[in-house]
User: What shape does this take?
Amino acid sequence: MNNPDLINKTILFVKDKLANAEGGHDWFHIQRVYKNAILIANGENCDETVVKLGALLHDIADSKFYEGDETIGPKIAREFLENEAVPENIITQVVQIITNISFKGGNHEKVFSSVELDIVQDADRLDAIGAIGIARAFNYGGFKNRAMYNPEIAPKLNMTKEEYKNNQAPTINHFYEKLLLLKDKMNTKTGKQIAQNRHEYMQGFLAQFYAEWEGEK
Assistant: This one.
């Protein structure tokens, strides 16, 4: 299925739905993930329509902004795609991407697999690391009124899905609880290559952050 009009309609739909979203989960986040997904898809044997729709709709209703309800995003996406008369086999794949894309603490078992999910998941994770990942982390931390850093609160590793969802730790802890773990969780060759550079950038940022915190430079 190759329908440019469907992609354009989806873009307009997502822009409208996310018009007032938090800055790290707004249309521009979707746009970056969309671009990342297209870049990664170029090196993979995949259904490009599923990849594009999955990338555009993956955060249509992020559960963290809906009291943890993970059913709303897939429901909104399905209703939109059904209204656009998209074939059921494509809708099912897109809904599976939305349902299974998130990190959730990194310790849950994968119950669905597809090359399209791998691509969109990598594209989403790339936007969580590097310079933009750092900016997004602190933007969300400010949105939730969290401390930037507290040396007395250690990062909590190997959290359950529920612990991760309810975690209120300082933003710096999020680097150890998620962001620095993503490099080794990438699925695709292109994703792994890009993630390596962004991972190293975050390590440099943390070294500088701690040096400044201690008044060293």
